[in-house]
Specification:
Length: 635
């Protein structure tokens, strides 16, 4: 085409059946345009993929094209429509070439008798006729896209040269970790951004296309990320950030010198600075807790709600649980429900935070600065819960095309506290409860709601916007124990550092009383109190909480085991060999099996659908829990 534009014998005369020539080649313009539209994310993907993967192959071809290597602004894709009354419009058009006074155009697609054509056009000086290359034949221009450069001239040529020499770049999980810490992300979220695993809008936003970065050649294993984790993180980021923001982020991540992709990796400094300028400083996410939180959280599984008939084409709805956003909000203390500029914080939700506040309280030792912030957050949540006068959304319901409608909610909505609200955008209904109409955390309605949610098929219910059903969180908001936990954490600075799970720190008087009552040493008495009260007194946890060396733990465990106060047994997933007498309840991960006798002490340990997505933790201050367990023991 470039040669014809300068060496052609003449200008086409306007007869569609009489083209200047025809190219005996099939130009896959759709593949080329898709590469052009997503060249930036494809570059990030290619260097983190297996050798010669699909992303790399597409870019190696693209790099040799004049659009990428130095002829920008001289190529455009043209869509046009020929008049139906022209006899020559039905002549075979595919692959024909027409030379005009200013350009050469090549027919890359035509529909036979369909008068709509697509042409690839080249103008040596970048001057294109406004009415299209075939205007002299009465062909109407319907759309034209002049290709704009993705990167400066020569960038992709240099990228292709480096890739042929070195292949994929080394994985950099350390870079992902640093990127995550700067932006309040999880390492998995940072990784899916650095490897272009999140969908984005195309370069030149008026072009058609939808980018799916999950190439079969992508290799996430060296980044220490599982594909299921990556897919989940990518979906969450896309819903929070939007595809246009992600597209710009990819452009910022590509260094000006492509060689840096192999030496230092993506330009995280520039990308992070732009991110913070656009969204503000991230929430103060306690990143050290996120790996354990992810391990102890199980996401609900079900079917997304489809858009209503009048809104077909919109995405289906399924909430994404983002632990960094929830933990970051709790770290704000009494500002946990304030609006935050950072895009990934989401809208503040009263019913999204209580359960994770209790989890953080249990998974941090006294002296951790996060605890006082969480205490202030709990106080704010309880105050808001006491003053709310409207319904809180607990979970949603939908009919399944195979299994039908969920059980009737008539018995629930007969209660004045319960309402069922149809969603305006999606085919689902929200089950909501007004906390002000309940008597407290022991209101019989809550058990009725638990039973109903347990009866619904997985495909017939959806979580609240937080990503989990909010029924357990509502119980906490109504609980005096949860309010007391907030007050307890607010005074955490007055305690000596260490784990409150160790009763010698939190309730030394009970340890002494237990030792005297049962004739035990202090260590054996402390171990007995932990078995009485805590949901997870595994051997590993006990050693971590107390700081005991293996020999000291073994001595205490042997003494308590010989006392007749506990049972010695082998039970799957228990992580210990000593148990309270009585019934035993098996559990699925992330929850540990537990003695039935403890369920009265630990509301979040009860086996409901609303509670099973998070490891069981206490909702009361640990000194209170130990006291109740000791006072309620079987003598």
């Amino acid at each position: 085409m470039m040669r014809l534009a300068t060496q052609g014998t003449g200008v086409w005369g306007g007869d569609l059946a009489q083209a200047d020539t025809a190219f005996d080649v099939a130009f896959r313009y759709d593949v080329f345009l898709a590469t052009h539209a997503f060249a930036a994310p494809l570059a990030l993907c290619a260097v983190s993929s297996r050798p010669r993967g699909s992303a790399a192959q597409a870019l190696l071809t693209y790099a040799a094209h004049p659009v990428a290597s130095g002829e920008p602004g001289r190529w455009r894709l043209v869509r046009c429509e020929a008049p139906e009354d022209r006899a020559d419009v039905h002549a075979p058009a595919h692959r024909k070439v027409y030379r005009t006074a200013t350009s050469v155009s090549f027919v890359v697609a035509s529909g036979g008798t369909d008068p709509r054509w697509t042409l690839w056009e080249y103008a040596p000086d970048g001057s294109f006729a406004e009415d299209g290359p075939l205007a002299s034949a009465g062909v109407k221009l319907t759309r034209a896209d002049v290709l704009e450069p993705v990167r400066p001239a020569g960038w992709f040529a240099r990228f292709a040269e480096l890739y042929r020499e070195q292949g994929p770049a080394p994985a950099r999980p350390d870079l992902a970790q640093a990127f995550a810490e700067r932006l309040g992300l999880t390492p998995v979220e940072a990784t899916v951004l650095l490897t272009a695993h999140v969908r984005c809008t195309p370069h030149q936003l008026d072009m058609e296309g939808n980018y799916l970065s999950r190439h079969s050649s992508s290799d996430l294993e060296p980044w220490k990320v599982r594909r299921a984790e990556a897919d989940q993180a990518a979906d969450g980021l896309l819903s929070e950030l939007g595809p246009r923001f992600v597209a710009t982020l990819y452009d910022k991540l590509l260094p000006d010198d492509p060689e840096k992709l192999w030496t230092t990796g993506p330009d995280v400094d520039r990308a992070a600075a732009w991110w913070r300028e656009e969204l503000g400083s991230p929430l103060p996410v306690p990143t050290a807790l996120l790996p354990l939180a992810a391990k102890e959280t199980l996401l609900p599984r079900g079917e997304a709600a489809l858009p209503r008939e009048s809104l077909r084409g919109n995405p289906a709805w399924w909430p994404n649980l983002r632990l960094p956003a929830l933990f970051g909000r709790l770290a704000l203390g009494d500002r946990c429900l304030d609006h935050h500029r950072a895009g990934l914080a989401g809208a503040p939700q009263l019913s999204a935070l209580p359960r994770f506040a209790a989890w953080i309280a249990y998974r941090t030792p006294a002296g951790d600065p996060l605890r006082s912030a969480v205490g202030a957050a709990i106080t704010r949540l309880c105050e808001e819960g006491a003053s709310v006068s409207g319904p809180l959304r607990l979970f949603s319901l939908q009919s399944n095309h195979l299994m039908g409608a969920p059980p009737s909610t008539d018995a629930l909505t007969a209660h004045p506290a319960v309402t069922e609200v149809a969603d305006t955008a999606h085919d689902m209904r929200h089950l909501c409860v007004n906390p002000a109409a309940l008597k407290g955390s022991d209101d019989p309605l809550l058990e009725t709601l638990e039973a109903y949610l347990d009866s619904v098929l997985p495909s017939q219910w959806l979580p609240s916007p937080s990503g989990l059903p909010a029924l357990a969180d509502l119980r906490l908001l109504l609980s005096d124990d949860f309010a007391a936990l907030g007050e307890h954490l607010a005074t955490d600075g007055e305690r000596s550092p260490g784990w409150e799970q160790d009763p010698t720190r939190s309730v030394p008087h009970l340890v002494e009383e237990c030792a005297q009552a049962f004739g035990l040493s202090e260590d054996a008495a402390a171990l007995h109190l932990m078995l009485l009260a805590l949901p997870d007194p595994t051997d590993r946890n006990v050693k971590a909480w107390t700081g005991w060396k293996p020999a000291r733990f073994k001595t205490a465990e042997a003494e308590l085991g010989a006392s007749g106060r506990v049972l010695r047994a082998t039970r799957p997933r228990a992580g210990r060999s000593l148990f309270l007498p009585g019934a035993w309840q098996e559990r699925k991960p992330p929850r540990l099996p537990i003695e039935v006798a403890k369920l009265g002490l630990l509301p979040l340990a009860r086996e409901y659908r609303s509670t099973t997505h998070l490891a069981a933790v206490p909702s009361a201050p640990l000194p209170t829990l130990f006291t109740r367990a000791w006072e309620g023991r079987t003598n």
